[in-house]
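User: Here's a structure from my thesis project, written as structure tokens. My advisor, Dr. K., wants to see whether a designed sequence matches the one we expressed. Can you design one independently, without my sequence as a hint?
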């Protein structure tokens, strides 16, 4: 069992930056950040493989969001720049048993989520 704890969400204005963190209770492999806006399905936003060599970015966040990880402290980060109102959602950290997981269906454990609200 892996426990994931997200932090760093909150309120922001359009154009602002936020950084989310996700701490894992055990060593983890592929990591990803999902988000779910009201009335929408949960979507994979960004992902990173175990070594940090391979990443995935959804088209809607490419160039604005950056995922990174520090395996020594079992933490993954999501730097979100140039935030837009459409980035408003609950953001979930997730991990996979796989070394790399770049699609929605490859994740095994989820955090509780952290709310990000961006006002215009």
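Assistant: Designed independently from the structure alone:
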């Amino acid at each position: 069992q892996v426990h994931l704890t997200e932090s760093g969400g909150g309120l922001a204005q359009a154009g602002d930056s936020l950084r989310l963190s996700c701490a894992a209770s055990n060593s983890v492999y592929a990591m990803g950040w999902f988000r779910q806006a009201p009335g929408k399905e949960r979507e994979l936003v960004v992902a990173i493989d175990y070594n940090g060599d391979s990443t995935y970015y959804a088209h809607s966040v490419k160039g604005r969001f950056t995922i990174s990880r520090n395996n020594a402290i079992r933490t993954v980060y999501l730097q979100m720049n140039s935030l837009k109102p459409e980035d408003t959602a609950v953001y979930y950290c997730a991990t996979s048993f796989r070394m790399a997981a770049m699609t929605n269906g490859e994740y095994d454990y989820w955090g509780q989520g952290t709310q990000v609200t961006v006002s215009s």
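When you compare it with your expressed construct, this may help: DSSP finds no helices and eleven strands in the chain.
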